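Reference record:
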Amino acid sequence: MHYLFEFLKNFPVPATREEWKRIQEAFKAKWHFPNSCGAVDGKHCQIKRPKNSCSDFYNYKGTYNIIRFALVDADYRFVFIDEGSNSRVNDGAVFRNSALNSAMENNLLNCPDNSVIIGDGAFPHRNTVLKP
């Protein structure tokens, strides 16, 4: 594994096609879903209000949250994590601004051809992202 971007030093992302193919094979065997390199989603996590944050992390439920955004393999193991977006944006916006999206758009992940990730309705539909 290599480090995709400088700020992801502590979280190695699969670097080779072989590593991604292992993830794809597991998705096909376990979930009968071929070509998937992972499933992506976001989770709002309640926090104490950061100093000087005003309303950046304040949400409609009256709490302060950050969003934990992750791509997992067929066994729910983390493949990519992006944490810290404020709770005023949806999962699609977190994805759009993530290093994962940037790497996908610039073909830096070294995924096999015809690879996809699976997301829910909040994510954009494109050749590399499947949603219901």
